[in-house]
């Protein structure tokens, strides 16, 4: 009876059921968010440990800073969301109606703060993959123009969503909210898919174009890491779009999964590379050395024969025929071998077995 005391008598049963569904979704989704954020904390801890304790320092400082900032902003977003949920069910938990009224009331700190942190997370995650795509594809601005437009669309969409939630209490129940949420999620999905496909396309085409650049199997682990990282984020974005369009209440939970996956995906990519789950080779870059995915070998504990191979300049990763011919000539002059092509194949085999990789 206490719960029903302050509920207006003119509310229909359908409206009351909707209120219960909204509050249940708000509470349960934030509990899921808390569990996922705890998993995220474990992932970032292991990743940073691998990055700082690795003997060969395979992860660049720039990527370490990015994933650290991404985690800090994501944690701030979680704290603001949890503060808002706590205010609903603790500070205003006298009745179901008081919870509902606070839930739909515009709150500047929680709403705008959560929106700002969400936007920053989106910029950090998407800008990282756009920057990597730009470097890998030869710094061609036209190639990254579509993903940049997608990112701008996502930022504008999220800004409109948060502004409407702050100024219009019942706007979150309208169909226009679904339109902007779908546009936001679709833009993020398009950015991830576009950049990932371009990076993989660059690897495949340059590998096939260079006769001496090595086989595609050399880059199999790199491609796998890129696909898995993109798939982790894309799957939840697709689910979020579908469930929002269908009006299914499960979108509460997919939104939380998408928010955490936005930071976990690049963190896992860095963590797996820091653990050595990739093969080093620069040859897919053509005539340039990429600074976004820069694979190189490092000498250490090698015999004099391997050190001599490193001195030939193999780790520069230049795959043009003229450069490869010069590489073979230099190696022949230093080692006086009868079969330079066979020796070059031995160099490539040694590179394929090396598990060190650097992301700058």
Automatic annotation (TrEMBL):
Biological classification of the source: Eukaryota, Fungi, Dikarya, Basidiomycota, Agaricomycotina
Originating organism: Armillaria gallica (Bulbous honey fungus)
Domain of life: Eukaryota
Alphabetical UniProt keywords: Membrane, Transmembrane, Transmembrane helix
Protein's name according to its UniProt entry: Uncharacterized protein
Transmembrane segments: 31-52, 64-84, 141-161, 181-204
């Amino acid at each position: 009876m206490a719960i029903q005391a302050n509920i207006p008598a003119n509310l229909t049963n359908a409206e009351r059921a909707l209120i219960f569904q909204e509050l249940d979704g708000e509470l349960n989704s934030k509990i899921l968010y808390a569990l996922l954020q705890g998993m995220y904390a474990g992932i970032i801890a292991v990743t940073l440990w691998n990055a700082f304790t690795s003997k060969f320092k395979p992860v660049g400082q720039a990527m370490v800073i990015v994933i650290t900032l991404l985690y800090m902003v994501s944690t701030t977003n979680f704290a603001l969301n949890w503060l808002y949920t706590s205010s609903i069910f603790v500070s205003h938990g006298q009745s179901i109606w008081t919870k509902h009224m606070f839930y739909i009331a515009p709150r500047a700190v929680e709403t705008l703060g959560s929106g700002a942190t969400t936007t920053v997370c989106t910029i950090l995650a998407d800008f990282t993959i756009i920057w990597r795509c730009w470097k890998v594809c030869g710094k061609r601005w036209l190639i990254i123009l579509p993903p940049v437009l997608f990112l701008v669309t996502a930022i504008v969409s999220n800004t409109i969503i948060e502004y409407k939630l702050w100024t219009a209490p019942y706007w979150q129940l309208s169909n226009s909210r679904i339109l902007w949420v779908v546009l936001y999620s679709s833009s993020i999905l398009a950015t991830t898919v576009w950049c990932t496909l371009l990076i993989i396309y660059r690897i495949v085409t340059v590998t096939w174009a260079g006769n001496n650049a090595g086989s595609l199997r050399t880059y199999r682990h790199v491609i796998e890491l890129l696909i898995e990282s993109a798939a982790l984020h894309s799957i939840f974005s697709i689910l979020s779009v579908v469930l929002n369009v269908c009006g299914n209440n499960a979108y509460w939970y997919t939104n939380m999964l998408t928010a955490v996956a936005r930071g976990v995906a690049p963190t896992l990519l860095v963590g797996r590379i820091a653990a050595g789950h990739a093969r080093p080779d620069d040859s897919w870059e053509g005539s340039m050395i990429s600074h976004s995915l820069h694979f190189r070998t490092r000498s250490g504990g090698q015999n004099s024969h391997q050190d001599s191979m490193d001195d030939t300049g193999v780790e520069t990763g230049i795959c043009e025929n003229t450069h490869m011919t010069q590489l073979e000539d230099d190696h022949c002059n230093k080692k006086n071998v009868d079969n330079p092509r066979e020796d070059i194949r031995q160099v490539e085999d040694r590179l394929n077995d090396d598990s060190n990789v650097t992301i700058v």
